[in-house]
Amino acid sequence: MLEKIFQHLQALQEQASDLPPAQQAIFTKTLENLSNSLQELAASRQFESATNNADQVVKLEKSHRILERTVAKQASRLRQLQEQLQKEISQYRRDNQALIKGKAKLQTVLRNSPDIISILESDGRVRYHSAAVERVLGYKAESRIGKVHGELIHPDDLLAWQAYFGWLLEHPGIAKPIEYRERHADGFWVYMEAVGNSLLQDYNVQGIILNSRPIGERKQVELQRQLAGEVLQAQIGSAPLAINCTNTKGKVTVWNRAAEKLFGWSATEVLGQDPPHISEGQKQDFHDILKSVFNGKAQNGWEVSLLKKDGGSIDLWLFVAPLQDASGQIIGSIKIFSDLSERKRIESERQKLEGLQNMKEPFWVRYVAPPKSNKKE
After folding, report:
1. 31: burial class by Cβ within 10 Å (0-12, 13-18, 19+)?
2. Integer CA distances (angstroms), 55 to 43, 44, 100, in order
3. What is the domain-level CATH number for residue 310?
4. 153 CB-side CA count, 13 A
5. Structural domain tally of the chain?
6. Interatomic CA distance for residues 275 and 283, integer angstroms
7. What is the mean pLDDT of residues 297-310?
């Protein structure tokens, strides 16, 4: 812009020569002043431009430094992210390897587990069977996929299984064990014990885990024990001696017919109650007897006098032994009573006879021969 103004002033100076001298001098002077002013203005503009440029340079340098710091921070953050990414990749590889190994171990465990591991859908159909199903029940695992689990259960046990499965549908978590019979591929029945774990709400499972195992041998032992118990009950019931059993709380659990006859109380009256033939004063003595028996001390028996229902008492010889379950745990005691009345009567008669034998003369002599008299005839 200033350059154009200077060009116009130069043109005016060239035209000033056509003016009269006086006007030419004035016009020339004016042009000079104007030229000087323009030069000053140009110088001022250059100074301002230089100043502005300097300020801009400072701002640019400041922005540059800020940018360098930002870039440095971003570069540092980028290195951290790269290091973190490398660590996560390494951890992922380790986790993936561990997962592969874990799956291999799990498959090995499932293949060799003696128990049948099953996953059931909410409608009772089989999603998965472990290999043990073939060893226990004779079915190929893949042949049971999609089949209803309950179709192999004995009809007499089916209602119990349906109630159990319904409980699992409504209650997440592990349920109590259930026993039922399941049909083998060869047609016979296998006693099974199963434990269900409802994981329907678990995203990774969404099913019911069933762990089942054969319990035929245990069931046979239980049946034999039950039969033996029934035989023992029959033997106790028909025993000629009075027998009663109490649990660890002292309540009567067995009261045989001989005990009914001896003491007068029927089994209906005493079962589940404290023994009625023990008086209050004798309870501590009986407690001490049972304590010594439970501690394993050998005992030869005790002579006791016990109550009868008619209010009288009877002298008895008492034998006590602990009752144990199959695991050896003490569950109570058995008491056998022998009536001493007859023996005491015989003992009394024996003592009388011994007394007679010790006399100087038999007692009947006094009545057969008159006593000697000291009077003289």
Report:
1. middle
2. 18, 16, 66
3. 3.30.450.20
4. 21
5. 3
6. 10
7. 80
| C-beta of residue 208 within 8 angstroms of C-beta of residue 119 | yes
Asked whether residue 178 falls in the same domain as residue 152, the answer is yes
Whole-number Å distance between alpha carbons of 14 and 11 = 5
- For residue 363, tell me if it sits in a domain: no
- 87 and 118 housed in the same domain: no
Q: Is the pLDDT of residue 230 over 50?
A: yes
What letters, b where the CB count within 10 A reaches 16 and e where it falls short, cover 172-187? eeebeebebbbbeeee
pLDDT at 128: 92
Q: Which of 153, 100, 146 is nearest to 119 (CA)?
A: 146
Q: From CA 29, how far away is CA 23, in angstroms rounded?
A: 10
Q: How open is the CA angle 330-331-332, to the nearest 5 degrees?
A: 100
Distance CA 115, CA 213 (A): 5
Determine the average pLDDT of the residues in 43-58. Answer: 68
pTM of the model: 0.45
Q: How far apart are CA 38 and CA 5, in angstroms?
A: 8
Residues 128 and 242 both lie in one domain: no
Question: Which tokens sit at 230?
Answer: 């029934």
Between strands 189-199 and 330-339, the pairing is: unpaired
Q: For residue 125, what are the domain limits? A: 113-214
Strand partners, 339: 316
